[in-house]
Amino acid sequence: MGNAESGSYRKRLLGISPEEQAEIEQRFENFCGGNNSSKKCVHLKTFQDSVGHALPSNMTQRIFSAIQGVNTGNKSSPPAADISKEQFMFFFVDVLRGNAEEKSWVIFRLISSTNCEHVKREQVQQLAQDLIVSMVRVLKLQNLLHGWNVEKTVDNCSGVSILASQFLSQLKSADQTDFDKPELSHSLCSRSSIEDWLYRVPMISTFLRVVVARGLSVLKTHPEIQRDLRNLVPTCRGVKKPSFVSLLDLPSVMFLNSHLPSEVQHKWRLLFSTSIHGESFSKLCGHIVDQGPCLLVLKDSDGFVFGGFASQTWEVKPQYQGDTRCFLFTASPNLDVYTYTGYNDHYMYLNHGQQTMPNGLGMGGQHNYFGLWIDSDYGTGHSKAKPRCTTYNSPQLSAKEDFTIDSLEVWAVGDIPEHLLAKNKKSILDVDPEARALLEMTGKTRQSDGLRDVENDEC
């Protein structure tokens, strides 16, 4: 390699440390296997055999083709069917540390191996689906689910398609047209459109980093990759019933978790589920009050899944609560999050047993016209947002404005509040059976039930 080429090579590697460079080079040597020639390169078959079942075969092919398309500036490039060490190195530099422009080239090469200037929307959507499927594969095969059990969530295949559609909703065509209609599936988008897309949907870059690092076993324990995994998949706790199946699929969990405040993204703890605790508004209140920030998820009788994030602990009182971090969301048939508009402060509301104020749980809008409302006469609710909820700018979340609840679950997010940990150390109900019996006779539940010994529970 000449001095000019050597200097260019070193400049491209400034984004990684010498230790990282050495690990990437060693992995390339492993891919080369028994190739003892002075000019080492990797064939597709060798690459596929080395990756094995860590990634779906179509993603392995995409990654190989993307590496092949890397321009190293080296005049003595490898044969067309192979990849060189320089290409392998530069690909990792761009994926792990590249800016949006550099990553957009990677995405473009993952979509199409030809040197075209535009790609079709349907090609982008297929890549998005392949990337999400690969992410789920990596998490499952490498025991990175943090307590989640794929078999105890709803259909992940449907979730993959829904999350891919959500990603695509943020993509603009080459003429800056939104891809929000089926007839636009053959519309074209440019590399600048892909670059803009990566700014709008940072999860794509995160998925790509994790899939490449963990799938190809390169820098897979690096702090940056470990941080990505912590932010994507929260630790799941609090599920003791083997038959429990969450209303959320794994792609939805990752998407919703990415919209939570960073300080609570690391852990979800099941507080309430109709399949476990029954259908009762008083039981719902008993399990969620004073438990810290919560994510409420419900499914209506038409199969729509939606809910809201309460950024502050629920309290039973006739006033609005919460702050600007609250949001509403839909999970099926569409996946989206709707955040604070600044119009009013009607973030969250919980009331029970009052004669002069509405009794129930609500988020956004106003009394009798909530963006999301669960009536205290459990089983019914409404989502009145025509044209939009004033607090969150959300549309109607449910299939019908007035809906019937099919099932409901509530997750506390973040660490258990300190006051509950202190209370949990020694409860009068542990030493006074009469007090516990009296509580049960009144139909109330122990606030601390479900908090103890949950660290080994799985979802």
TrEMBL record:
Superkingdom of this entry's organism?
Eukaryota
- Main location class: cytoplasm
A Pfam family that this protein carries is TLD
Cellular component (GO) terms are: lysosome; membrane; nucleus
* InterPro entries per UniProt: EF-hand-dom_pair (IPR011992), TLDc_dom (IPR006571)
Q: Pinpoint the TLDc domain residues.
A: 246-414
> Which keywords does this chain's UniProt record carry?
Cytoplasm, Lysosome, Membrane
Instruction: List the GO biological process terms.
Output: response to oxidative stress; TOR signaling
The entry's localization annotation reads:
Cytoplasm; Lysosome; Membrane
Name the PANTHER family on file.
MTOR-ASSOCIATED PROTEIN MEAK7 (PTHR23354:SF131), NUCLEOLAR PROTEIN 7/ESTROGEN RECEPTOR COACTIVATOR-RELATED (PTHR23354)
Kindly provide the name given to this protein in its UniProt entry. Answer: MTOR-associated protein MEAK7
Q: From which source organism is this entry?
A: Pelobates cultripes
